[in-house]
Amino acid sequence: MGLEAALLLLLLAAPAALAVQYIVGDSAGWTSGGDYETWVQGKTFTVGDTLLFNYDGTHSVDEVSKNNYDNCNSGNALRTHNDGSTVIALSNPGSMYFICPTIGHCAGGMKLAVNVVAAGGSSPSTPSTPSDSPTTPRNNAEWLDTIAAISSS
After folding, report:
1. In sequence order, which ranges of the chain are alpha helices (DSSP H)?
2. Contact by Cβ (8 Å): 25, 35
3. Is residue 42 part of a domain?
4. pLDDT tens-place string over residues 66-100
5. Which among 11, 14, 20, 19 has a CA at the least distance from the CA of 132?
6. Structural domains in the chain (count)
7. 25 lies in which domain range?
8. CATH number at residue 54
9. Is 115 among the domain residues?
10. Is 17 in a helix, a strand, or coil?
11. pLDDT the model gives residue 119
12. Which stretches are tagged as biased composition: Low complexity (predicted)?
């Protein structure tokens, strides 16, 4: 009876655990020399997830258009953040672009592009590779598979 109660509790808590917070750059954070093109590979960003940018006073985070991302132009930033620990809510499906506006940082690779899919959406548009990122099941079928695996152990 104890195992069944634990599984029921897990199933009931599942909807609250669907959103994932991604720490940009993992333990290195948002910093010069980070490889954000590699960091983003294999991750599926879903509406409701968040990005956490951790950085020191020499950096900040600008959300920009694709054109400004491609050209490392922070002059027309959609939003600017400089608090050292910025949480960006991924509220809508589509592409989002971020750069560090400090001179030379974006051109040196300190820029991030993410594709946000709708909840229950498909896999990322780029080929995926294994990752150390969170692996929270995103739908009821995945939760049931997880529960079945636990039950059979």
Report:
1. 2-13, 36-40, 66-70, 140-152
2. no
3. yes
4. 999 999 999 999 999 999 999 999 999 999 999 99
5. 20
6. 1
7. 18-123
8. 2.60.40.420
9. yes
10. helix
11. 87
12. 122-137
